[in-house]
Amino acid sequence: MNLWHAPYVGNWGAAAHSGSPAVFPRALPMNSSVALPGSKSLTNRYLVLAALSDKPVSIAAPLVARDTLLMVQALEALGVLVRHSHDRAWSVFPTPRLQGGRIDCGLAGTVMRFVPPLAALAFGTSVIDGDPEARVRPLGAMVAGLRQLGVHVESDYGRSTAPLGIPANDASNSAHLPLRIVGNGAVPGGVATIDASASSQFVSGLLLAAPRFTHGLDLRHSGAELPSLPHIRMTLALLREAGVRVHEYDASGAEIFPAATAFSTAATPSVTATSGDDTPGAVHPNSDSAAVPSSATENLTAAAAENPAPAHPVRWVVEPGTVHLTDVEIEPDLSNAGPFLAAAMVCGGTVRISHWPAHTTQPGAQFPQIFEAMGGTARFIPDSTALPISRRTHGSSAHTPSGTLEMSGPSGAIRPLDMNLHAVGELVPTIAAVAAYADGESRLRDIGQLRGHETNRLTALCTELAKIGVAAREEGDDLVITPPRRGLANTVNAPQYARDGVVIHSYADHRMATFGAILGLRVPGLSVDDISTTAKTLPQFPQRWANMIEQSETAWEREHITANSGAQELS
């Protein structure tokens, strides 16, 4: 087993790198600046649109990671030319005639759910497969949708038995990889009704290819409330940016206009923070009010208050037409910012994320509000000196300003959290790691869709938290996390943890691996197996994590030496 020893900066044993006894009062306070690579969600969506565009497209600052390279390889297998290098913009040269091919989607949900509609537009047969873990992820909604649109598609293709005894070619959410798609160069399109409650990627995948369908697409959702709505809003925004006419409707038939779905910096989910006691002013679960602490200048919750959540969509209409995408630059991946912001929450101090967009559709932009509800302080500092991230929309040039996002940990205990996270499920492992250190029980609500992610994240989180003495359980679609009564930091502050060691299993899931890294900051002797799985969306994560800690150690030592020198001079 390949184990990565997570850097420990708690108040027992040795400091993370120096080998000397730790003398930090509670834990090494974070004091570091982090630059993150581009967004996976944006990179892969732009790649698909560029492949369908009417002219070549340059994609600057893309994420270079396993998920995005798999998307590049998938497009190349379909006949699209992509010139790419590690440190330059990628150039995408569309082809008027897509061809069938063999496609490896690895464990990338965006590849396994965005590429099938493209393969349906190709001439010839495509076979799509992936990692063993990918073969248990649901694909039934995509299979059902494509069949309704006139596409020949087979699921569980070439497997001796379908998983869990499900018949091959079943169109329910139990259909799986491999897929075999027979294309004739066109998709009739029209009306399709699917249950996308397992993943918003089913909706995004069909919408991205829909402009090239002969009759466009009238897509309707028939199941429970959709998860990850910000990702659907991202898809709609990029389609409109490429000149595509797309409409979104709620259950009443009323159209939801783009202005109703936009938000500045982040949109705040419904939040209830609990104090863990009955002191006056404490806000408890199911209370009518939300305890969101005030913070310094440029408090991000003020921006979020201007962005009420829009009605839930159930229908999308994409008109057929030309995709005209111009050159773009990718924002940093804000979901990958989560572990670094969590380090400030768990250890105290401040972590700064550069090039944070002031306006974005990324769900990770909601981390500041979530962590403020848990007692942290977030501050957005506009950057007037750096070039803004360029986002051009057909024919005109627009700019999205960016700045630095500062997250400072709470001065006291971390507050437990009671929050509905249905729309931002991918953030849950990071939030769960912080909740393990909270002063009381947290309830992360309505996140049943996590059972169909890279692994069953609900079960995985319960299993791994138990290894460090944190009780966690599934209640319906909620995850309930109950730290030890004296607090996790006090419980694990004992030599036997370092001696015996704790191994957090990653399940080949990048979010579970970074979850383990966060826990390891305050749990001595903790290791994570297969930390390399973080390369799926965040290359060189171990080096970036070590750099954050090294910066913090250097800053703390400099401050400590300066303070001691001043005291000696006074004496």
Q: What is the count of β-strands?
A: 26
The helix count comes to 16
Distance between the termini: 54 Å
Shape: globular
Read across the widest sheet, the strand sequence of neighbours is 13-21-22-24-23
Question: Low-confidence parts lasting 5 or more residues at pLDDT below 50?
Answer: 12-25, 160-173, 266-308, 386-398
Q: Give the class from helix and strand content and strand pairing.
A: alpha+beta
Determine Rg (CA atoms, Å): 24 Å
**Beta-strand content estimate:** 15-25%
Can you put this structure into words, describing what you see?
With 571 residues, this protein is an alpha+beta fold. The chain is 29% helix and 21% strand. The protein is built from 16 helices and 26 strands. The strands form 7 sheets. A 5-stranded mixed sheet has the order 13-21-22-24-23, with helices on one face. Helix 1 packs parallel to helix 3 and helix 3 runs parallel beside helix 5 (201-209). The radius of gyration is 24 Å and the shape is globular. The termini are far apart. Mean pLDDT is 84; it is low at 12-25, 160-173, 266-308 and 386-398.
